[in-house]
Amino acid sequence: MIGVALKGLAARKLRAVLTAFAVVIGVAMVAGTFMLTDTLQKSFSGLFTESTSNTDAVVRGKEVVKNSTSGSGATIPATLLTKVRALPEVGSAAGEVNPAEANVADIYGRDGKKAARESVGASVDPANAKFSPLRLKTGAWPNGPGEVVIDAGTATKKHYKVGDSVVIGTLGKKHPYKVTGTVSFGTVDSLGLASIAAWDVKTAQTLLHREGRYDSVSIAAKKGSSPAAVVRAVKPLLGSNLEVKDAKTQAKDDADNLNEGLRIIKLFLLGFGFIALLVGAFVIFNTMSITVAQRTREYATLRTLGASRKQVLRSVKLEGLVIGFVASVIGLVFGIGIAKGLIALFGATGLELPKASTVIATHTIVYSLLLGTGITLLASIIPARRATRVPPIAAVREGAVLPQSRLAGHSANAGIGVTVASLAAIALGIFASGVSGGAVALLLGGGVLGLFAGIALLAPRLVKPLARVVGLPARRTGGVAGEIASANSVRNPGRTASTAAALMIGLTLVTVVAVLGSGLRVSTQNAVKDQITAYYVVDGKQDLPFRAAEGDELEAISCVKAATHVRSDRAIVQGKENQVSGIDPATIARFYHFDWKKGSSNATLAQLGTDGALVTKGYAENEHLKLGDSLAIRTPSGAKATLRIRGIYDAPASKPLLGEIAVSQASFDKGFTQPKNGLTLLNADAAAGATIKSTTSGFGDATFHTGAAYPKDATKDMATFLAMLYVLLGFSVIVSLFGMVNTMVLSVFERTREIGMLRTIGMTRRQARRMIRHESIITALIGAALGLGLGVFLSALVTQATKDSGMVLSIPAVPLVAFTLIAVLAGIGAAIMPARRASRLNVLAALQYE
Amino acid sequence: MSTNAPVSATTDPRAPYERGDTKTPHAVVTARDLVRRYGEGDTAVDALRGVSVDIAEGRLTAVMGPSGSGKSTLMHILAGLDKPTAGEVTVAGIDVTNLGDDDLTKLRRDHIGFIFQFFNLLPMLTAAENIALPLKLAGGKPDPQWLEELIDTVGLSDRLTHRPSELSGGQQQRVAVARALVSRPSVMFADEPTGNLDSTTSGEILALMRDSVDTLGQTTVMVTHDAHAAAIADRVLFLADGHIVEDLGRSSAHEILETLEQVSGR
């Protein structure tokens, strides 16, 4: 029996390959995700340990606020370095300039654009190069105020060679430097997101405003001493804003931070892999169901020859097992390509990742093979069970059909039951309060999965009415071929339904993305419009604030009639990290419209003083705070303060332009060592606008917007994210395409004699092709109708649940029309090969085909 | 009646032509020196070894012969479904041997009707839709009067909206006959039209075919195993080993059976 099953597979190579590909893509995505995250993990953790291999302990400022954009601001005086060197436990020590603050040394390309999203500036001391994570790749270390080394990645990307002149903006001051060499960071050529520029210590200190001071001191223990002994010895020398860690602990902390980030990326991508696998399972189930039905006589013959039900069952399962395993192996190989593709995708969205050779870990291989094989096997169980119900007598009957499944009669009822239960779960997940986040995710995920299953079960009933509607163009334009196609599409509603359901899943998800994305865009735009009125808006790039001095420079431009600056950074408020804004009480109300709650008004602004704060209504409610209550705040520099709530206003949840906590600019500038602006709002006439624009473009870390365009510009990043989701969901649409090709090939195969007859009574090859093509399009359109409908429905549900936060339901015509067109194209694409087969059938052979 | 002597069927008023009538009024289908070889070299099999025949207009010609005699091959070639290895075929004056696929399709639309052993109706179309299908494929609209007359002739007036699965075998074959006739083809080919029917129903279908020849003047070629079916023909051709070995006029089932036995025994 095993031989029979395998030979059966070999004899139907095309079908086996098409079926396998339905699994290949999902497995490739899962494998690719593991490879990607493992590769990232390896390259980064390699960085951490290797870059500090000669360091036993590090002194640096205490990190108080993790995601602060200004850093602790704590620096180490040169005198401390001298003291450290004098310790008996210390072998050698070196001070380095490497501010934690973002974007202190922007490298510019020859096109005047920043070479990387973020930038790192540092010092290198050739005498103590062993402490530096930077390794010289080409050229020499810099020496003197005019010389710099840059990372090899940026050098390659922007075509800089040793000896070239490169413009670098340090803390906003642009100046050309001579490139004396290129460096790698540990073993990687690039940090991905950030470019690196490094000068000799003295130059770096001058450029980065650290005369006589360092950001960190690296220490190597004396022979016979230990890192722990060094840490013990150094600790008493440090002020409260500094800390010393042994290098191993430091590397572990860094790696832990990274792994947390990677875990999120991994889960995110695995989600899309599972969706593709789910669609693949649909396709396999469908294909195997059809082939089992078509091989009824073959199974009957086997039964008459003495095969037991169990043997038939095993032969079908074995077929699934072999297809699943082979597909998983291919998927694993394709996964390497996917991993590289994902890195490119991240790169395209501005999130460049360090390059390293792809890691293929054992767990990647095990998970991929188990998942792919398991899912295929699972999907083949029901078809296999159906095969066992073929009675031996079918071998001798003309036109024997597979006996109906015992459950077939109940599928519609089951479909309704599953659909209703799933909707209940989704509704509970969306609307119920007091349910934990994990439970909500489970309810929603399970509910949506169940909904797909329920609709798939109901779909055979929906196929007829839907085909009547979506088959209209075929019947109108396709002539008699279109009419036959339309009729063919409802001949086997179950088959059409599960083929369409596979496409439905992908289309539902892209529709949800499109509708919610559009709703979010509209609500964001509304939110921005509601909050600010300004002629011109300058904000930071990639949501990072820009240097405050630049805002002041803009304000100083002649003809600027009014300006206000919104400082922005992270701080620990009431024990939790949060966004804090610094506003100018005198000018903010001219630009920002506060939706004051009871007891607060624009007059409140004047009372902010140095210890007052405004909070949003949402924050006050979540933290159970009211006017007059105190807030404990700790800034990145470690400074602690107690603020008093002087005002409460309502801010839109979709795009608040101020942090949940706002203080006066004066108190902000006192608490944050490197104050930066999230926004600078300006009123000026049109002539000044051009000057503001050109001045801003020179900053490198800020972007100019007109007030009119700002609401729209504020949603630009979203488009990139949506595009990424579309690409990732596109894979599952491709999987369903294989399913459509499969179904059409099998249908053509099944209707060979019929097509022969049609050709005999006057159907042309062209008409035969058109007939298959229209059937395929109708199937695709049924999938589109189900998917778009379900997607809009789910989006409406989510919108309803998030209405309070300003979310609006906006059904974007262009993407939905585009999805429908894509479905039509998918239908046409899926029909190419089957249609060709149908039209090339030898009429005579087809007529005599059994 | 002796089996090998010429048989006179002229007493039957329905037979418009005399047996042995050498000056057939008009040949709708002509075949000259048809050879059909399957395979190559040592394994080559000749299904037809030089067959020439004219199919006269307005007559029902039956083709008989034992299995492997080449009768189906002959019909397929006459209908343009298969190509001869050598020889020539014309249908309605058109040389079909060198036509491409599109021209052959057009030929089938305009000049040829088909009846199959297994009816071959489209299961999702109604009887009426199945009947009109050839016209629609050709992009034409059925003439309602003609359609009505046709449906009347085949006796399906009350079954028009039924789908094939709701029709008996005989009714399905009636639909198939109507479908073959609907385009008023120059010639109608029937491949074992009663092969899948019981004897009563067979008789009905044969009567229907005979009737279409008599009332509509429908030239018909029928390949059959069944002597009773061949007995309605105006002419019965016997094939054996790729040759036409007998050419009878209207004959009784008994005569046909005897001839067939003789032919098979050779």
Summarize the topology.
The complex is a heterodimer of chains A (850) and B (266).
Chain A: H1 2-11, H2 13-51, E1 57-61, E2 76-77, H3 78-86, E3 90-96, E4 105-107, E5 118-124, E6 134-139, E7 147-151, H4 152-157, E8 165-170, E9 173-185, E10 194-200, H5 201-207, E11 213-214, E12 216-221, H6 227-234, E13 242-246, H7 247-294, H8 296-304, H9 309-348, H10 362-388, H11 411-431, H12 437-470, H13 472-477, H14 479-489, H15 493-531, E14 536-540, E15 546-547, H16 548-555, E16 560-573, E17 576-583, H17 588-591, E18 595-596, H18 602-606, E19 612-616, H19 617-622, E20 630-634, E21 640-650, E22 661-664, H20 665-671, E23 676-684, H21 686-697, E24 702-706, H22 710-713, H23 716-750, H24 752-760, H25 765-801, H26 813-840, H27 843-847
Parallel strand pairs in A: 5-10, 7-9, 17-22, 19-21
Antiparallel strand pairs in A: 1-12, 1-13, 2-11, 3-12, 4-8, 6-9, 7-10, 8-9, 14-23, 14-24, 15-23, 16-17, 16-20, 16-23, 18-21, 19-22, 20-21
Chain B: E1 27-38, E2 45-56, E3 60-64, H1 71-78, E4 86-91, E5 94-95, H2 101-111, E6 112-115, H3 127-137, H4 144-154, H5 169-181, E7 187-191, H6 199-216, E8 220-223, H7 227-230, E9 235-240, E10 243-248, H8 253-265
Parallel strand pairs in B: 3-8, 3-9, 6-7, 7-8
Antiparallel strand pairs in B: 1-2, 1-4, 4-5, 9-10
